[in-house]
Write a structure and sequence with these properties.
The protein is α/β, with parallel strands linked by helices. The protein has 2 domains: 4-107 and 235-267, D-Maltodextrin-Binding Protein, domain 2, CATH 3.40.190; 111-225, D-Maltodextrin-Binding Protein, domain 2 (3-Layer(aba) Sandwich). It has 9 helices and 13 strands. The protein has helices at residues 38-49, 64-72, 87-95, 125-133, 159-169, 184-192, 221-225, 248-253, 259-267; strands at residues 4-6, 28-33, 56-60, 78-81, 100-109, 111-114, 122-123, 150-154, 179-181, 197-201, 210-211, 213-214, 232-240. The strands form 3 sheets. The chain has a 6-stranded mixed β-sheet. Strands 9-8-10-6-11 form a 5-stranded mixed β-sheet, sandwiched between helices. Strands 7-12 form a two-stranded parallel ribbon. Strand 2, helix 1 (38-49) and strand 3 form a beta-alpha-beta unit. The longest helix has 12 residues, at 38-49. The radius of gyration is 19 Å and the shape is globular.
């Protein structure tokens, strides 16, 4: 589990709305959830702790589903998620006396990625779906090399998996030979080391792999913002109620709307929201 944990000098106590169980520790913010949103949360934490005193922010990446569970169990102050909270999670929150408040902090495009040696440049949504269901098994069926396709997916607890399932799979079941891994970075590493592989990752994780155009559209901040890229999705932070204005939690959760926050989001490879 990746964690940012740094302390620097001086600030005021946190006042959290809705009575989170973590509120008694006035100088601590606990963040848990999505591996996609992780780079943004870590960069926000480093930025905020660099200019505020006695505030300790920890960021863990256990997956969107686990982030939701942590918020419901009062084990974190902020749940980072790469998909919206499900109705079942909202119902469980209500039963637990938790009021999840959604903040969209950035936009992302899911890039279809292959090994740099793969000669293909574009796939359609339907072709990607057929690869993941197992209907298309060999790259030669798409005009590529005569190699069996090694299909890599995020684990089913991941918000990225659920976004892909909704935007690409159209609820069709993935094939039996699909390999599941625990993070965007793990997909990238698997594709980098496997010439016949294909995977999908957020915009911030395409270094070292080849990002294909989808339906002829490249995944870029501009095409994500314009909604021309077909596999785009928001990224979320959830809190228990609305944090009290002027508190560290409220300032942390609204960093995305500030000029510095927007630059941090761009620098981490994602797309600021308007």
């Amino acid at each position: 589990m990746k964690t940012v944990k740094t302390m620097v000098a001086g600030l005021v106590a946190i006042g959290m709305a809705a009575g989170s169980a973590l509120a008694e520790n006035a100088n601590k913010i606990v963040v848990d959830g999505s591996t996609t949103v992780g780079p943004i949360a870590k960069a926000f934490a480093e930025y905020y702790m660099g200019s505020h005193a006695n505030v300790n922010i920890t960021v863990s990446e256990s997956g969107s589903g686990n982030g939701a569970k942590s918020l419901l169990n009062a084990a974190c102050d902020v749940a980072t998620m790469s998909r919206p909270m499900k109705n079942s999670e909202k119902k469980a929150a209500q039963d637990a006396g938790i009021l999840p408040i959604e903040t969209i902090v950035a936009m992302d495009g899911l890039s279809a990625v292959v090994h740099p040696s793969n000669p293909l440049a574009n796939l359609t949504i339907e072709q990607i779906r057929d690869i993941y269901t197992g209907k298309i098994k060999n790259w030669k069926e798409l005009g590529g090399p005569d190699q069996l396709i090694v299909v890599i997916s995020r684990d089913t607890n991941s918000g990225t998996y659920e976004s892909f399932e909704t935007l690409v799979m159209n609820k069709e079941k993935m094939g039996e030979k699909v390999e599941y891994v625990g993070s965007n970075g793990a997909i990238r590493q698997r594709v980098m080391s496997t010439p016949a592989a294909i995977g999908y990752v957020g915009l911030a994780f395409v270094d070292g792999v080849k990002s294909l155009t989808v339906n002829g559209v490249e995944a870029t901040p501009a095409t994500v913002t314009s909604k021309k890229y077909p596999i785009a999705r928001p990224l979320y932070m959830y809190t228990n109620g609305r944090p009290k204005p002027g508190t560290p939690l409220q300032e942390f959760i609204t960093l995305y709307a500030t000029p510095d926050g927007k630059k941090i989001i761009e620098d981490t490879g994602f797309v600021p929201v308007n």
